[in-house]
Amino acid sequence: MLNTVNSFRAALVLSTIGLLAIVFFDQKAVIILSFISVVLLWSVIAFQSIDNPSTNSYTGEPAINHETNLKINNIGSELSGILTEETTDIHNDMEKVKTLLNEAVEQLQHSFQEVMNNTNIQTELTTNLLHDLYGSNDTNKDSQLSTITQAINFSEEAIQHFVDMLVEISDKSVLAVHSINELSEHMEGMFSILDDIQKLSDQTNLLALNAAIEAARAGEVGRGFAVVADEVRTLSIGSSTLNEQIREKVQESKNKISNTHSVITDIAKMDMSTAIENKSNIDKTLSEFQSISEHTNQLASKIGKTTSVINEEINHSIRALQFEDIINQLSSSIQLKLDHINQVGQTTFPTDSEPHTINERIEEASETLTKMRNDFKNQNVSQVVLQSSMEEGDVELF
Amino acid sequence: MSFNTSLKDNILTITLGNKFDFDSIEDFQKTYIDSNAKEYTIDFRNTEYMDSSGLGMLLNMKRKLGENISITLTNCRPQIKKVLVISRFEQKFKLA
Predict the structure, then answer these.
(1) What is the interface pTM, i.e. ipTM, of the complex?
(2) Which of A86, A181, A199, A303 has the fewest CB neighbours in a 10 Å radius?
(3) pLDDT tens digits, residue range A249-274?
(4) Which residues have C-beta within 8 Å of that of residue B27, sequence separation ≥ 6?
């Protein structure tokens, strides 16, 4: 009898440790198992004290009395009742956990999807903004930059061209002024020549007058000569008139040249400082524009990078949500264990058992427990596989 | 407008007055037109103002003397130097 009791105790302790190891993560299950172990041990000790006074355990096995049988039945029924109640609660709690988890994961997936959609819209808006800014939907930042730089270079070339033109105008104006000054000198030379011509004309006139006087003095003989003298005088007056007309024309030309001189003077004496100042201002504006453009590019590039990081993170998160499956599997496993615990309660001391000897009932219980333990062990093999797959998940998902 | 000129070691130095502008055209040309120096230096130490005809006068001087004759522009004030640089005069003259 003691041997049977000892082996039964050992079986109980072992099965308790086994069950504890399997459901170690659930506190409630641990409490129930402790409870089962205590109840079982207590009942064994009770059987011993019941047997001892009436029989010698080594020699005979008296029939179990009715009262003891009822007690054992009662223990079986209480054990079964308590375990059924508690495991049902845990079972229901696990169902709630599953439902809540499913709902939460669904909500999370929906939210992540929304975040991803909005991020994509944001990326599209950024691309459109860049397109508006640079007139190109080229995603290559270098080529965008070169478009801006090109525009700036064009502007600089245009301004430099303008400056070069100013310089050339100055150069040509000064050259023109020198030419006009030379021309004015030539004009003065022409006036002096005209003066000489006028003198010649006057002298000719005087000479013709003298000739006419001399012809008159000669009388009838000089009549022909008088006609010639008169013609010469007429010619000298004509030449004098022409001379005067030339002088007027030359004077007119001189005035025109003087006007031209003053026009060229206005062109040549431009104050360059305004133009140069303008160029400096434009240069400054262009360089500010360039730095703004570079800054915009940097920001756009950062936005692009951020978007891809966000998308990547969201993908990670969505993958991480696969833990739902593992939790569901674990929950089902816990529920299975609970069923096992429940079975232990129901089958250890079945209430419908026929009255036998105490030894028979204990042996029956021992055999049932051993068989159940082996059955559970076989089912645990699949549990081990599941747990190892969760550990793999740990590395990948969290 | 009067210019101070000095000839030393075949280098003619022309020191400009307070203004180097349109009124100087004739007088400026006279300072170098009959000289036969090998190099020229234009000294801006006294010059506070130069208009665009100043640039024209220097370019005319270069043309008259010949592209191979070296002309150095020296002692320029910042504003005048700025005008010369923006006008790319360093390509034709020596800016000192």
Answers:
(1) 0.90
(2) A199
(3) 999 999 999 999 988 888 887 777 67
(4) B1, B2, B3
